[in-house]
Amino acid sequence: MGDTRAVLDSEEYPNTEVQKHRVLTLEEWQEKWVNHKIGFHQEQGHQLLKKYLDTFLKGEKELRVFFPLCGKAVEMKWFSDRGHSVVGVEISELAIREFFMEQNLSYSEEQIMEIPGAKIFKSSSGNISLYCCNLFDLPRANIFKFDRIWDRGALVAVNPSDRKRYSDVMLSLTRPGFQYLLSVLSYDPTKHAGPPFYVSDGEVKKLFGSVCNIQCLEKVDVFEERHKSWGINQIIERLYLFTEK
């Protein structure tokens, strides 16, 4: 227990710039889905989200919940089953189709006129809408604003040079009284090039602190066997709750 506590309380990694110029193209992300290189997908859902779900929802009904870079996250079904409206955006059409298939949900698809080449996939129930397009094009589709944002595997996946642009888009999509739950990862970025990319506590505050109250709800050691291939021996997940200032 002493070792774990020391890890969780350790200082931030000083070399935050080492991944600054790292770039993955949208095509490379699509290839990850085609080649099933999706170690980031959690079949049982996110355990910290389960733990803090009541804190996140505050007992409110019929919320609009946004999933940036949603993949085939099973948590989208959790929210829709509770009567909330879910909107996601994902560049991989394969990921979106797998979500509906694995959750046994019938759906329709149509072109998005405002974004050439983009599609929207809607569950037959009408409360899950997944946009297949570049996240940065999404505001052109007039998707309105959200009560909740669940950001897991999104900020840590966008190219580090795009983070300010990303946070600006996210904050532009929030309604008054919003709650924004963010999961980021902390590991030695000199050992692993990413993604997922290392996001420091200072970076989180720089991106969101001018608009949001920021609370770190929990830090958890999430090291798994697969992380050994990254050349690291520890990886910490930090869960933040943002609320309106």
Give a nutshell description of this structure.
Keywords: Cytoplasm, Methyltransferase, S-adenosyl-L-methionine, Transferase. With 245 residues, the protein is an alpha/beta fold.
What does this protein look like?
The protein has helices at residues 2-8, 26-34, 47-51, 53-57, 75-81, 93-102, 163-172, 201-208, and strands at residues 64-67, 85-90, 107-111, 119-123, 128-132, 146-152, 174-186, 212-221, 236-244. The protein is α/β, with parallel strands linked by helices. It is globular. The chain has a nine-stranded mixed beta sheet. The relative contact order is 0.16. The protein starts with a helix and ends with a strand. It is found in: Cytoplasm. Its EC number is 2.1.1.67. Its main location: cytoplasm. Belongs to the class I-like SAM-binding methyltransferase superfamily. TPMT family. It catalyses: S-adenosyl-L-methionine + a thiopurine = S-adenosyl-L-homocysteine + a thiopurine S-methylether.
Overview features:
245 residues, alpha/beta, globular, 9 strands
Strand content: 25-35%
> CA-to-CA gap between the ends?
36 Å
Please state the CA-atom Rg, rounded to the nearest Å: 18 Å
Shape: globular
- How many strands, which pairing sense, and closed or not: the largest β-sheet? 9 strands, mixed
Unreliable segments (pLDDT under 50, ≥5 consecutive)? 1-11
Order of helices and strands: HHHHEHEHEEEEHEHEE
Helix residue percentage: 10-25%
What do the pLDDT scores average to?
A: 91
Identify the strand order in the major beta sheet: 3-4-5-2-1-6-7-9-8
Pfam families: TPMT
GO molecular function, one term: thiopurine S-methyltransferase activity
Subcellular location: Cytoplasm
EC number: 2.1.1.67
